[in-house]
Design a protein that fits this description.
- The protein is mainly α.
- It has one domain.
- The chain has five helices and no strands.
- The longest helix has 22 residues.
- The chain is globular, with a radius of gyration of 15 Å.
- The N and C termini lie far apart (36 Å).
- 9% of the residues are buried.
- Pfam families: Anticodon_3.
- It comes from Lancefieldella parvula.
- This is Methionine--tRNA ligase.
- Keywords: ATP-binding, Ligase, Nucleotide-binding.
Length: 88
């Protein structure tokens, strides 16, 4: 589990690989969801500090290639993308 790996400094490279895999998967999912949830998908990509050209690209095939995510980008936290519904 990633939280176990994160506690061991000797496994830092393994943790980096796990985080990269998760972020790259999220990036590709955001592009695949773009036709159905354009605002939310764009916000996900913005929070990953991706450039505007990628965020506004309509070439899903080329944007969904594995390995396009650059290392060292900052991920910013924002408000909930899908706020909880109030229960009755």
């Amino acid at each position: 589990a990633p939280w176990t790996v994160a506690k061991d400094p000797e496994r830092a490279s393994e943790l980096a690989e796990i985080i990269y895999t998760l972020l790259e998967s999220i990036r590709i999912c955001a592009h695949l969801f773009m036709p159905f949830m354009p605002t939310t998908s764009a916000e996900v990509l913005r929070r990953m500090s991706l450039d505007e050209a990628e965020i506004t690209s309509t070439d899903t095939r080329s944007e969904c290639v594995w390995g396009k995510l650059q290392g060292g980008l900052a991920v910013s936290k924002g408000d909930a993308l899908f706020p909880r519904l109030a229960s009755k």
